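Lay summary. Proteins are chains of building blocks that fold into shapes, and those shapes determine what they do. In this project we predict the shape from the chain. Here is one chain we studied, written as its sequence of building blocks.
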Amino acid sequence: MKLVAQLEELFYQAQHAPKKEELRLADWRISVHESEAVSLGIKDNSPGSVYTPPSYREGENGEVFLVWADGKCSQAMVQLVSHDDREYWQQELEHWRQASYDDPDAAHIPSPEPLPLVTVDDQAIQKIIAGDDQMLFDQVGQWLTDKPSAAKMQGGIQTGWGYRHVRTSSGLSITYRQSQFLAWFSFDSVIGGGFAKRRLFRPEEQERLWTRTLNLYETMHAVAPPVGPQTQVILAPSMTENMCGQYILPNFSGDRVIEGQSAFPKESFQKNKLVFHPHFSLVIDTLCPLELGSYLVTAEGVPAERTVLVRNGKLQTPFLRVKDAVRWGAKPTAIPQGTAGLYLKHQAEIPWVQALRGVEDGVLVLTVLGLHTQDVVSGSYSLSAPHSLRILNGEIVGRTDVKLTGNFFTDLAAPMTKTAQSDLDNFPYLIIETGVQNL
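And here is the predicted shape, written in a compact code that computers can read:
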């Protein structure tokens, strides 16, 4: 909170009584995150080693956006300094002025709007931060006790608690609490599981995650028959999320669409072009209680909301930050936090257990190599997928190594593509027919 107060005082003076006329501000925005975090890790079956020691850290940092009296803009990262030196901040203001630039579309600070009611903090996490952290050590101890005897385990738990402060010259002044809980583990760096929300996981969720991961790990030790030309490909939820992060997020970013760097030109959105199968919809929802992608307000001061990017296969809008919205001629939209807050929906989605029973000849892809090297705009992929699992007659029977070739946009447009719901993940299993061959 101290950093916010220092910046507010600095900007108020620069707006109303600057020491130098060239340092006069027309508008400004402050976004500061005040946070505390406690974490504990496992490295090669060893908890709290020199590589993953129990740790506590705190910090106060954020960003500022300034619009000077002549219309130029400045943007900078800021953090709390150990002293309340007004001369220091005055020098920073001069540095920011020296680095100012012309960007008329960006020189806009939204007026305050009503904020939604969204739960983004879990009081149980605050208690852990305050010192009641035995559950972290108990959980890591339980993992090491229950793990397969021959497996080399990696893992970690992190809890975070803090405050988000957003202030603008247009009158927005909000401070709210937020928390996060991240837990992950893997066996032999091959099979793993993870949980990420703004709340602690429940015992039954931890048990289901552990059981699922353990079953997959045990199955990985059996040798399975090779795949054939009729083999279906099923992307695990984490793979579906990774594919959306690689192909969906960049191509639905407003600035890329406006600049002609997206797979979907602006005219396609304006005409609501059909690009996916009508059963698919794509949504950014930042209003879901205690989800990692939820918030009350963006760093730009825009209230959280639900934005439909694709409805029944048809383009609706890219996601638009303030500058993009000015250029687009529309209101700003919800903004995803990475892939958190992004939801891929299919009208005929069924539970994974039911979908698995219907797979006679398939392969479950858990991870791939080189996804970040693929062409984002074309949607095409050619990926090695070692450590995949063969499915025969509705059962996962063993490990196989495959190569995938296809196009993610084509996959989402194909009538045979289906999804299956995971009770542990926000992204679904994605069942596709694409090029698959043995490695």
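What the prediction tells us: Residues 267 and 273 are 8 Å apart (CA to CA).
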